Amino acid sequence: MMSVERGINSSPISIVQAYKQAYELANQTSEPDRTIQAYAKMIDFCANTESCRWNPSIKRNTLLYWAHNNIAKALKEKNQPMEALRYWQKAIYLSGDNQQKICVWEQMLETWGTAPVCIIRRCKEIIKIIGQLIPIYVQEGQQYEVVRLKKLKEKIFELLKKAGN
């Protein structure tokens, strides 16, 4: 246990080590603030380390994707959906494969559905996300998801018509 604590508190020398420390800290408790703090520290490590900041790689982007995604989930848990959406937007930029994109877009879709903004903005954001998800699901051969999203899009357009937009 002592070596784990020393590892968590020591200064990381690589993004992998920074991520491992963040993961260990975040998983010591179920408190969302702890998760946010741990992964924010990892993101800051990369932003403040020249070799990480200026050398994008699949490994770096994947670790940053996970960090942003975990912070967004914790923010959503804390009932801060707009801030969560900002972190998911960053995660989308860092995502590498379709499964990561689907994971984030679906979480954003769900979050926009209850976001504390006017119904018209909510609907427009949901339509944008559907526009991103459908081609990915087509590429993945998940036709049932395409049908689900097209039906949702129709309902959103009906709602916007009723609202006068």
Throw out a few tags for this protein:
disordered N terminus; mainly alpha; 165 residues; elongated; Serine Threonine Protein Phosphatase 5, Tetratricopeptide repeat
Describe the structure.
The chain is mostly helical. The chain has 2 domains: 2-96, Serine Threonine Protein Phosphatase 5, Tetratricopeptide repeat (Alpha Horseshoe); 117-165. Helices cover 81% and strands 0% of the residues. It has 9 helices and no strands. The chain has helices at 2-9, 15-26, 32-48, 50-53, 58-77, 81-94, 98-113, 119-140, 143-163. Helix 3 (32-48) runs antiparallel to helix 5 (58-77). It starts with a helix and ends with a helix.
Write a concise synopsis of the structure shown.
The chain has 165 residues and is mostly helical. The protein is 81% helix and 0% strand.
Any chance you could write out the topology, listing elements then pairs?
Blueprint: H1 2-9, H2 15-26, H3 32-48, H4 50-53, H5 58-77, H6 81-94, H7 98-113, H8 119-140, H9 143-163
Helix pairs in contact: 2-3, 2-5, 3-5, 5-6, 6-7, 7-8, 8-9
CATH class of the largest domain: Mainly Alpha
Q: Stretches where pLDDT falls below 50 for ≥5 residues?
A: 1-6
Give the mean pLDDT.
91
CATH topology of the largest domain: Serine Threonine Protein Phosphatase 5, Tetratricopeptide repeat
**Proportion of helical residues:** over 70%
Shape verdict: elongated
| Secondary structure: number of strands | 0
CATH homologous superfamily label of the largest domain? Tetratricopeptide repeat domain
